[in-house]
Amino acid sequence: MASIENAAKPDAWFTIEHGVFKAGGRWTITESARLDQQLRTLDAGPGDAITMDAGAVEKLDSTGAWLLLRTQRALEKTGRKIGAVQVPERYASLMANLDRDDKKQQSHPLPRMSPWRYRLYRIGKATVEAGRQGWRMLGYLGRVTAETGEMIGAPRKNLRFAAMAVQVEETGISALPIVGLLAFLIGIVLAYQGADQLKRFGAEIFTINLLGVGVLREIGGLITAIIVAGRSGSAFTAHLGSMRVNQEIDAMQTMGLNTVDTLVLPRVIGLVISLPLLTFYANIMALIGGAMMCYFDLGITIPVFLRQLNQAVDVGTLMVGLVKAPVFAFVIALVGCYEGFQVERNAASVGQLTTRSVVESVFLVIVLDAAFSVMFSVLGV
Q: Does the pLDDT value for residue 22 go beyond 70?
């Protein structure tokens, strides 16, 4: 028989006698160091079966639950028959989740391997997880597409115009200063670098061609989408993740509200409306920045700049850049909302999935931009 119980019980205690392991008090992280040391030297005494009774536990967190589970596993390794740990009803789900995760880890142990094999294992695991993530996002895309079709069929009934207007303001109007400033500076940099190279051939005037085609076809839309992915996409994930942590989404589902109609579609439609307008605005600001650089660096006046720009580009050049913006917006909003709904009920998960949302959005935007470039090249646009 072993006993770690004093006349005046400490905050957390346990005893083991007559084949019964009893635990009580506050099994929390503050008591974990003392309990860990005492449990490691536990003497279970004689007997083939032991019952673990933690019904007297007043407070239990994940650290205390893990100590109980570890003790159960240690006693099982000695050959004794151990039943399930009996805990108060409010802590039953915590113990069940920890027990399930522990058994899953034990059923798939990581074999010992050399460093280069371990790196290959990590690459393979990341590849499989990326495939599963893509499959889940494809399923989510199907659901959003179906909900969008229902909304188009009955817009007055399903479309929340007020929420959509708020999203247009937050993702579009509020983003004008940062998008305009960055586009203006990129126009300056692009014109300066182009002029520096073309001066060698006496072809400074073609800096305007480079600027016009580069900005209108590629740079303007791509940079705007990346800025919006970092600004609005992350905000979607953080907002929905915080609602999930605070159980607001659960409350909406309990009330019978469709979370896609209420939370996702206004964001998707709002961003699809605002991103093309932001792209057009960024194109204008980049051309203004390039025109200023051409004036001060090359001495090209504004009328000459506009005349050469008119010869270099046409409406088709502008539309090539603008037609990609709604697709970029849909992908950014879809990823941001999807990752927001994947947040677990802790603050750390909000930060992790917000970062993942931005990375995935930027990656998909660049992939789509490359696909559009290849498609336009094949079509001769």
A: yes
